[in-house]
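Progress report, Aim 2. The chain analyzed during this reporting quarter is listed below.
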Amino acid sequence: MRKNILRRVVLISLIGNIVLTLIKLIFGLVGRSESLFSDGVNSFVDIFISLMLLVVIKVSSKKADSNHPYGHEKYEGILYLFLSLFIMMVATVLGYNSIKNLMDSMNNPSLTNQPMLFTLLVAIIALIIKIGLYMINYKTAKTYHSVALYADSKNHLFDIFSTLISVISIILALFGMVYFESVASILIALFIFYAGIKMILDAISYLVDEAPDLDVIKAIKQQILSCKGVLKLDDIKVRKHMSQFYVDVEISVDKSLSFEAAHEISENVHDHIEDKFDVIHCMVHINPYKK
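Predicted structure tokens for the chain:
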């Protein structure tokens, strides 16, 4: 069920991105709006992102096997990394062309055209569609703990800002400030580049077993110590596995307890932590308590 819902949301994004790409590129070109056309290039990139997401959802949802005993979820992190690099590359090309166009316009003002009025309406419609896509993706990613879909929702969020910049620049250009079209295209490229950097940092944290926030570790420690029979917390290691965690913990129990009684305490800790937190597996090692 999770796989089908995620795939459905990605398909909605794919259709939305195709529509946005077509209207932005066509009306941006016909309506002489450089910022709207640049935003169309951004939406064109989103088409590839949606297509890659469809592939990774299929792969990452596979069950654990002998070669992948911890599952296939980290393929989402790999996709996250490649998407980041791809987004940054597109932003660099877009930024370079925008700067070149701005310099050419300043050297030869006759090359600068005022956008047509209908481009403003197109940009506003595109903004509304993007807000809808962001809300659908973010809500689904949060509900089903999908890192890849969460990455796509962040991409939609940055697209909202870039389209908003396009709307503002078109309004200014219609009032005669035509240079703002090129400036807006540069800002859009910077937004895209910044999104890529943020995504790279997130991807690295998912792929190198980085520890979660200290608040999460502190909360897990408190819950372990609250379990009946746990006298001391000797050691704890928590690592990310995409949106979830693995926990390895050593606890001290009364050394006079029987093996069965000590084992029951460890099982209680194991079950409690997995129920209380988004933990895939909690490994518990028992030590005899020493004062």
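Residues 214-288 form a domain with the Alpha-Beta Plaits fold (CATH 3.30.70.1350). DSSP finds eight helices and three strands in the chain. These observations will guide the mutagenesis work planned for the next reporting period.
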